[in-house]
Structure formats: C-alpha cells, structure tokens
Predict the structure.
Amino acid sequence: MGRYYSVQTGKEGKFWFAVQPSDDPRTVYHMSEVEPDDEWDEESEYSETYTDYESSDANAIKDHLDEQYDILGVPKEERKYKCENEGKYVWEDLAKYYLTEKEPPKDAMGHRACGYYMGEDKPTMYPISSAKELAASRIQLGLVIYNTILTEGICMLNAEN
C-alpha cells in the first residue's frame, strides 16, 4: 500500500505513508506540472491517478533540500547531496536526526506516534516529531530529483496521487 513516484531513469520511490503529501514535487521542490505523454488519452484514469512534473534547476532543488536539512537540524558539513541510494542514506545516516528509541507518551486520546519496525517484532524507533519525520521524507525525494538532474540534465517525475 502506498503512493509511488518514478523518474525517467527507472528509479522508483514511495511517498512516506501518513507522513508525506504526494504533491511535494510541486509544493516543496517547485517542479513544474506538465501534461501527460500523448500516449494517454483524456478519458483515461491516468490524469486522475498520476501527475507528471519536471525540473532542470539543480541549484533551486539544492536550496529546497537545505530548507529540509535545516528543519532536521543536520549540520552543513554533514549534508549529502550526491548519492546513489537516497533511501539508505536517509534511513541510516540521517536516522539520528528524526528517530529516537524513546517511546513517545500517549496523547489525550490514548494514541501515540507510530513506530518503525527495525527488524524486530515490536517498534524499536519512534519519530522525534512529525516535522522532522516529514523533513526526512522530503530529503529522500529531493535527493532523487537532484541526482536525476545531475545525471540526466532534467528530472521528469511521475507521481501517484
């Protein structure tokens, strides 16, 4: 279950469930929304299910990445932009900025933040805050966009709504 995105190189990713909006390419990274490829007719479900975006401005994407790194609290000297495995970088190298082993308290309704199952039968890591968890998800997406622009000159991203 989830909403996926892909870029023209074939790399795929997933918007973080219950954390990340699928319009982040437009609202956070200011990618231009483009019309779907001509192979799709106007009556197909494609336009209701997917949105296509594009950007070739690596500097702007990097600036928007820095905004998310700032929210996460990552020092400038520890920020990474070029990487082959964006998901691994976010989950392993940046985890200390948005996850904690301390179980959060329940709210007034008796709910607590969902935990991450790191190979165990019960949650072992919890988000420090929803803002930091959202920033981490946006860094992963931004790195995919940025690295695609660096290698291809443009990023054409297809996002499931």
In short: Residues 3-160 form one domain. The radius of gyration is 17 Å. The mean pLDDT is 88. The chain is about 35% helix and 15% strand.
